[in-house]
Model the fold of this input.
Amino acid sequence: MPTPFPLRPVLLALGCAAALCGMGVASADTPAPQTDPANVVKTRPPLSSAQLLFQMLISEIALARGDVEGALFGYSELTKRTNDQRVVRRANEIATTNILMNAANRPAEAEATIKAALARQEVTRRTLLEQLPAVFARSQDKAAVAQAIERLTAPYLNLPEAHLARAQAEIDAGHLTSAHAAATEALRLNPDLERAILLQTQSAPPEHVQQSMEALGAFAQQHPQALDARLNYARWLALEKHNDEAVDQYRKLLNEYPDNDPLAFTIVGIAAQAGDLPTAESLLTRLVQHKWGDVERLRVLLGEVQAELGHRDEALQTLESVRPGPHFVTAQTSKARLLVAQGQTSAALQSLRDAQARSADNITPLQTAEAQLLRQSDNLAAAHDILQNILQREPDNLDVLYDAALLAEQLNLPALMEERLRRIIAIKPDHAHALNALGYSFADRNQHLEESESLLTRAIKLAPDDAAIQDSMGWLRFRQGKLAEAADLLKQAYAQFPDAEVASHLIEVLWRSGQQDAARKLMTEALHANPKSIPLKTLAARLGL
Done:
């Protein structure tokens, strides 16, 4: 979507000059509009390059000063004297900006304004049609937007862009069947339209996904310049585990566009999905060296790929090179995990403490990571002390309150756990995990069962498919003596989340229900999967299994 904010005119003029001289790189996300040359009105002699750039500069200066109407007039005149599609697109971007501004101030008039613009602007009609979903992007009522776009495009159904607008609006509204039909019609009108095949693929019903992706592959083969189509096809191949074919697809792209860094970054994700981590590592290394994009984020990704490849020294060095900023905490926690995996827990803790000294702005998340590491090392008291210190500074930090509550339970401090969970619920009544934790705590201790039911009922309404909450409710039903209901809930929870604790609850209920054979069988399976589980071993000893 074009930005509604004025840009620096000198930079814009330079950018336009570069594009017109063939120096710009077309984005795969914004394909060139398919304008019929017959619709281009030429009422005056064509402009020279110098005249064209000068008039563009004047129009951009007007836009930078807030004179949208003046800029729009200037570009409208330019479109009459050139058929350069970049000028047409820029004119349409400014027209869209003007419509957006008017729509924001007078939303009731927006549709009429756009309707008039479509009727009046024959030269830029196609691109304006294609950009209609962007014009309405701020609206929350996506179904109403789809209806408005259907009305606006009705006079222009001979143009594929009208069907593109309908397809995108229907996708945004969740109407995939009508979106697929619109995209298919756009493709029928213009079989070379990349955006149409992409929307058709995006809206394909489940039973036609395979056929749709094969059509995308055929389109990509016939249109080698269609980078988005080729990339999406390669991504689908990787997701479907056709890894050799995916690798073949993106290696061709890399050979054809060896210096295209944005393309290389997209391929990093596809290569990782295909299990081709050496290619991902090579591309990320190149991007970091080129200082392309968000370099610190790239370093984090590179470090994680290097760790996955077993290049641990390189990974540690890469993660250490990430400077304080938005990706610093992720880098430092990844580095700590890598050190722990190497058996260097003390070094991991020291690394996190050193990081705290380097970045005071990230003190809380780094201390939280330190507490988690101490907890994993069974140093619960030290972990609790760190979280307590954080809460002295930030008493309403919900994440820290929740972690501290769970630690209090592990330290056999139920009153403190309850106090912290109640504080979370007071601040955020729809905190499903806090409701569940407090409700389960009461059920597990066989106390306050009425309040436990109230808490867990609220939690399960907020997250009906959460296996942990289903387990808690099943355990409450067991405490209430409702064994059949308890067994049903616990079976559902265990099917979703075959955890040792859930298994121990289900085994207990099966045993008490007289289903000893089923309990023994489940105990054998659960112990095989979780041989070090203390709850399972304790239960097995108590029941004589």
Summary: Residues 1-43 have pLDDT under 50 and may be disordered. Residues 430 and 462 are 7 Å apart (CA to CA). DSSP finds 31 helices and no strands in the chain.
